[in-house]
Amino acid sequence: MQILRDSKSIEEGAGSCFEPELRKLLAAKVKSLNEYEGYELSEMVNFIVFEECDTVANLDAALGFSVMANRFDGCRYGEPGFSPSWEAIEEHINWFEMVYVLSDDGFGVVVFVSKRADPELLKMLQQYSHQ
């Protein structure tokens, strides 16, 4: 798992050794966020790249909450009444993209999840990206 927290690592990530689709997705996010003058990227967003060898427990630790549970009521995926706590989810060819807004000032985290990652996580993402 790679975590891009500072402006330099975010900008480098968009032109890095990531596979082409992910580089394109990162570059598009960077371009849209660069329109906010007076802010460093790191003041607005962090990116997490979750790959096939990563564990959900490591993702949870990086986020500070469980991705498989609602951040506000604790209801877990698969339980009656579960609803995910991300603001947006989008499916791409090889990646899922989850967006979490973590503070009132709009700071957020964008998580890119490889479609070769943890099967239970992928099942949840697939289900909710099509709703």
TrEMBL record:
Source domain of life: Bacteria
Protein name according to UniProt: Uncharacterized protein
